[in-house]
Amino acid sequence: MHLYGPWILDACLLQMKDRYTRSSTIVNTNDSARMNETDKTLDIQNERLMDEAFAKSFATICTIFGSAHCDEYIHLEYLSRFYYILQQGLRFYQGDEQRSLTIIESILLNSADLFRINLRGINILLPLYLDAIEYYLQNDFQTYINNQSYMKSTINSSIIYDRYIRIRSKCIQILMSIVSLPFHYEHLQQILFEDYFEKSHDVQTIVKTFFQYRVKIFQLLLYGLKSEQDIMNVQLLFGTFRLAFSLSAHYERQQVKSDEKSNERILNENDKTISSSTISSLNNDHKEKLILPHSTRNERAKSELSIPTLNSVVKRDEEKLNLFRTLKTKQMKIEEYALQRTTYLTNEKPIPECKPQERQTHFESIRLFLSHYGFCSLDSMHHIINGKEWNESRIIDHHLQPSIQLLDSNITTFMDDIKKLDKISPTLYCTGQIFYLKRNQYTINESFLNMKTPEQLNPSFLTMVSQFGTVVEVKRHCGWTGDIETSWKTVSVTQLNKCSTSKTLVDIDGDDSILYWVDLTTEMAFYLPHHFSIVDNQSSEMRILIVWLEEFPDDLDSILPIQEQQSKTRDISIIGIHPLKNHLFRILLNSNAQRIQSACASIPLIDGMVLPLHILPLFLRQAVNNLSRRKRLEDSQNSQTAYSIRKKRITKIIDKYQNRTNHNLDEFFQNIFFSSTTFKSQPIINQSKSRSNSMIVVQS
């Protein structure tokens, strides 16, 4: 600004004072009638060149301020003049529509980053930006091109369409960076100033709260979704909608909680008031007058006289009451006689003690369950009587064949294959590595010592990490740990019951402990590594790095080690988090993550998004999950779902260990319910000792 400020700001201010008188010089019919066609053409060309020059000056000043670093100090004089220029440039003036549209488009195309950098007082321009965005999101392309009449004859329609799409994209990005402001500031008041040129005297101020812009922002998003034609812009709209709905839902939940707390407080205050009044009445010496019942006796109404008295009922039903007394006396004698007889029989013959039956050992209950649930059909027992072989029964009655198969577990490699099957998780799994880059730290290798001093880290970072999941020890954890070698292992009961010690940030390094989060379909592990390991690029899993950036980098891929930068790997996605001074957080994505985001609109985080802390961990977990799923979808040959991997492994085990001998059906059912080899040679009592370890597999 020291270099360009003295003249670039004046260039933007040149056209402001004559904007209100310019319309009369252009629209005056008497002057236009005197001018010949050549002069008119020259004037139109000159006006268009002037409009483009003014628009270029606004674009330059917006680019300069938008490229400022987040902690760069800007003089208040420059900021005030810049805001004043934008305040005038974003206004739509009647009679000067052409220049207004050109300048507004230039500002929107070059100021997408103004609300996501630390510019003091930038929120004063919020209502003007919303009005400018409304014009471009509410109108479709046909309406836009009709308003740009001067472009029809000179510029190709495809160029106009590309410009229209770019303007709408910038409008959506601006909305994405300001959608959190109404929920973040809520009832904070903002003073809006009217145009000084329109009201040179008696200038009045308007006071609004940020929460009043919430409805306006939601309307603009709906306008954009109704008239959007570009796929990339639709994805940006979906991401902004998701952020807006999450913020609104969280706000509604907080309102419900606050209402419940206020109701409890009111009830407590009422209870205190009642108790205090009671205590004051007890302490008072005044005695209340005792009111006797007969002193307030009233005459009985006709409805009360219609109900008979108890004495009249007794006299009317006296015979029935006497009969009831007689029956009651007889029943009492019968019950006393029954009690005496029960006591005599109990003393003569003692009641035997109830004991459970002895446990049976000659059969296995799981095999009966298989039969009861229909996995082995007993309706096909007629094949045993006819003596038909197993292969013949399959051909004759295919619908009667059992849906289970016997495996031979006596083979030495059987249990090894079962353990390998247990190593395959039934759910999807993904991992996120967390790093913290302080100021003047430009690579990940410089950040490993930061975790040893957590008191020097941003408190918001510690809050974010604590909400990723539950701290678990790797050696005592039987789920996903971030490493295939230490995951899904069998943990003894003593280790599970052992009390875990408190963990510090240094201990959550992936070797000692992790942050574990799980739902019905996904297991996630987060940890803060002490080193950056070089992994083979042929690995089927994507490495996802969550990096907290105190200083805004120009290129997010530059924080990787030199070896990873030279390898040009496509399997590392970086999610950068940069804290702003207004306690919001800006999201940055590297090239690989942006590529996946452009191909898959389900990723909640978008490059340039600004969001608060309370929904940041949720969006990060969803982003890590969706990035991993997208990587598996792209590399479907090397990376498959857990269900398909387990199904293939089970099929291989069945083919390898299936009992392929041609038994008839009687031997087949004997192998299920009794011993598979010694049923005929030994009696039933000793079958449990001689039974082989046969394995049953249920085919789905």
Q: Strand count, sense and closure of the main sheet? A: 8 strands, mixed
Tell me the helix content. 40-55%
Number of domains: 3
Radius of gyration: 41 Å
* Count of DSSP H/I helices: 28
Q: What is the rounded distance between the termini? A: 72 Å
Structural class: alpha/beta
Question: Which blocks of ≥5 consecutive residues have pLDDT under 50?
Answer: 23-32, 290-295, 380-385, 392-401, 675-693
**Strands of the biggest beta sheet: in what spatial order?**
5-6-7-4-8-9-10-11
Which overall shape is indicated by the principal axes computed on the Cα atoms? extended
Mean pLDDT: 77
Strand content: 5-15%
Counted beta strands: 12
Structure explained in plain terms:
With 700 residues, the chain is an alpha/beta fold. It has 3 domains: 5-253, no CATH class; 366-419 and 643-698, no CATH class; 428-611, Rossmann fold (3-Layer(aba) Sandwich), CATH 3.40.50. 50% of the residues lie in helices and 10% in strands. It has 28 helices and 12 strands. The protein has helices at 5-13, 19-27, 29-34, 37-66, 76-89, 97-110, 126-138, 141-147, 149-152, 157-178, 181-185, 213-227, 231-283, 302-305, 310-316, 318-348, 365-372, 382-386, 390-396, 414-422, 459-466, 493-497, 562-567, 591-599, 616-634, 642-657, 665-673, 687-690, and strands at 189-193, 205-209, 404-408, 428-437, 470-473, 513-518, 522-527, 543-549, 572-579, 585-589, 610-611, 694-698. It has an 8-stranded mixed β-sheet with strand order 5-6-7-4-8-9-10-11. A two-stranded antiparallel ribbon has the order 1-2.
